[in-house]
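does this look right to u?? FE2/S2 (inorganic) cluster version
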Amino acid sequence: MERAEFLRLVGAGVGLAALAPCLQGCRKQQDAPLLSVDFTLDLSQSTNQALTTNGGYLVTQRVIVARTLDGNYIAVAASCTHQGVTVQYQASSYRFHCNGHGANFNESGGVINGPATTALQQMYTSLDGQMLRVWS
Ligand code: FES
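got this back:
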């Protein structure tokens, strides 16, 4: 084997070795299709009790619905746009947090910090008495 050929083969091997971790760890952001939802939660039902307290939240139908510290209702898609882990609502920080890799989203679903780069889909909410409608 010629010296030049040897160096070319070694160089290619080093390049592949350097790329290997990225090929496994640098998965593409989730290209989740937009959710199409329209449902109503009866806040008088015990299953929705979390939404009767400021700062409370629940996840249903792939949507996280929360009641802010100001008593407003907000809702976004529950799956993190990075790799799909279900986000949590952290009322005192005014954000949705993903335990997967630490992404944070504001109360409208916008990215505060990555690794996620795509916003959570924001839903509409409307309260009529004890009936909370959530739709996209
Ligand atoms: S799944 Fe990675 S930050 Fe959410």
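The beta strands are 38-42, 57-60, 63-67, 73-77, 88-90, 95-97, 104-106, 111-113, 124-128, 131-135. idk if thats expected tbh
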